[in-house]
Amino acid sequence: MAFLSSLTNCSSVLLLVTLLVFGSFVVYVSAGDLNQDFKITWGDGRANIVNNGELLTLLLDKGSGSGFESKNEYLFGQIDMQIKLVAGNSAGTVTAYYLSSKGSTWDEIDFEFLGNLSGDPYILHTNVFSQGKGNREQQFYLWFDPTADFHTYSILWNPQHIVFSVDGTPIRKFKNLESKGVPYPKNQPMRIHSSLWNADDWATRGGLVKTDWSKAPFTASYRNFKANACVMNSGSSSCASNTQTNSNSWLNQELDSAGEQKLKWVQKNYMIYNYCNDAKRFPQGFPQECNMA
């Protein structure tokens, strides 16, 4: 565990406790073949992995949506996926891409892409659940057309924080504030899930705009999955390397000054909703983490 020496004392204790709880860690790097990393979970033939495992497509029509999940469960990692969203009039559709554990006190880290009318921007919806508690929504417009090409959506999840990024630009950071009484996802392994589904009761303008089924089928596409991550296997789990290497540097990665500046730029110019600013929603006071950001 020589790699722990580069952490601050506080982070070292936190990570050491996690390692002791979950046993020996082995860093996993994805294989590059989506057949090796994912399985189709629903959709009755509407989801497919093609091109020798290089491309995964989800389809939504009036009969059903579709979805997939990772074969592995992860406990911390740097996870990247390139996604090309539903083009044209995508109103009423939601493309969800997230990490989630199981049970009534589950943890979850969400990207959700809310479709819109042609020419109107997608809304990128994010949320963090810890021990079954969510309600931590932040929403953004994107500074590009996410349907014209593939873009990389990333989750950095380590003992210090969770960072959501788009094409390498951080858009949101959720700190580990357990020492202040705020639950943080650190004990429950999570699978990657993604689905394309109809949510026209709420997804676009609060449900005012419905899905236009004459535009179906709707398709979202995925490629170039990459995971430098800790994997749960048979009740014990990952990330024990005898030396610090580039492959596990994410375990203690913090945003540098340039990353913090990019984060501020996105939140100033593209954030359209932040639960920590919604006084009407929290008349008795904001959630505890809002006062510690």
Q: Would you tell me the overall average pLDDT?
A: 88
Please report the distance between the alpha carbons of the first and last residues.
31 Å
Radius of gyration based on Cα positions:
19 Å
What is the molecular shape?
globular
Instruction: Report helical residue fraction.
Output: 10-25%
Q: How much strand?
A: 35-45%
Can you tell me the residue ranges where pLDDT is under 50 for at least 5 consecutive residues? Answer: 1-26, 241-245
Structural class call reads: mainly beta
Number of strands: 17
Q: What is the element string, with H for helices and E for strands?
A: HEHEEEEEEEEEEEEEEEHE
Molecular structure report:
Strand 3 and strand 4 form a beta hairpin. The two termini are 31 Å apart. By secondary structure, the chain is mostly beta strands. The strands form two sheets. Strands 1, 3, 4, 6, 11, 12, 13, 15 and 16 form a nine-stranded antiparallel β-sheet that branches.
What's the short version?
With 293 residues, the protein is mainly beta.
State the main characteristics:
eight-stranded antiparallel β-sheet, globular, 293 residues, nine-stranded antiparallel β-sheet, disordered N terminus, single chain, 17 strands, 11% helix, mainly beta
